[in-house]
Amino acid sequence: MTPFRSRSRRPRTLVVRLDSAGDVLLAGPAVRAVAAGSSCTALLCGPQGAAAGRMLPGADDVLIYDAPWVGLEPPPVTRTATRRLMDTLMAGRFDRALVLVSYHQSPLPIALLLRLAGIGWIAADCEDYPGALLDLRHRRPPHRHEALAALDLARAAGYALPPGDDGGLRVTPPPSTTHLTGPEPYVVVHPGAAVPARAWTPGRAARAVAALSAEGYRVVVTGSRAERELTARVAGRYALDLGGATDLPHLAGVLAGARAVVAGNTGPAHLAAAVGTPVVSLFAPVVPAERWAPYGVPHVLLGDRHAACADTRARRCPVPGHPCLDGIGDAEVLAAVAALTDDPADQGEQTERGAAV
What we know:
This protein has helices at 21-26, 28-36, 50-53, 79-92, 108-116, 146-156, 178-181, 202-214, 228-235, 248-257, 267-274, 289-292, 323-326, 330-341; strands at residues 12-17, 40-45, 61-64, 96-99, 121-125, 136-138, 187-190, 219-221, 240-241, 261-264, 279-282, 299-302.
């Protein structure tokens, strides 16, 4: 399809991404492409992705729907919630909708609701027969990164990135967080993840922080309010503990100020990429790295990609001892951080950003 040219002809477009904050951040390039060809662009996301959605350039509005088929603890199906969504969508007077899903998800439940709300043109990646639910049934190329797959769908629907946009992850400029971190250079360790299989165990994370500190790095440990006990244990006496001290915009500020971020396959790793900070990615192979690795920034992937848990999408490690991540040695971590930051003795240097290592 050809891009929309005349502003008066540009549609009101809804972009749907109902998953977590990391998934919403990966949708950012597609949202910007849609915004370049729309008179108004709204993002429909779940409660876990709303804060990230509000940080995406190009999103004029963020609508929230807690979908019963998404998330770790999905809500029950109710007429009340469905009618509320219908009312919200009809009030938006959307002409078109793009449903963004991961390769293993179906867009058809939300497509049905969008159709009932009167949205006349709907596009999505879809392996299942969509019947009358989709106007554009797009097929993603195999092994495609999630950020690129979303952008592919936008392009197939006639939306192109504006001139000068490189298609990387991006968020609105975060606030200054020097009052939280102090002015001296630092490395961030983010030990938590919504899915435990994708993170170090607390003891392993604490040992890595101690090793980084002994190597001469100043370490900042980040986490949510619910993770304060975890961050306190991991930081110990070796690092600055910012557990519970940041909302998502301020976390973006902390990550933007870091020389590198050490994190699992979780939202803050994608947030680090969105602010241009290199990532040491502790990547458990329960999902493929080719689809969810840090996108568009220098990064090093650590972890056993051929472990017994590979491609299982397990939420908790099925192998005793969590060897795919806890088996990563301190020397590997230190080498990865050094590769992204240069010599720790010269922490005032800035590393080049924008390409994968």
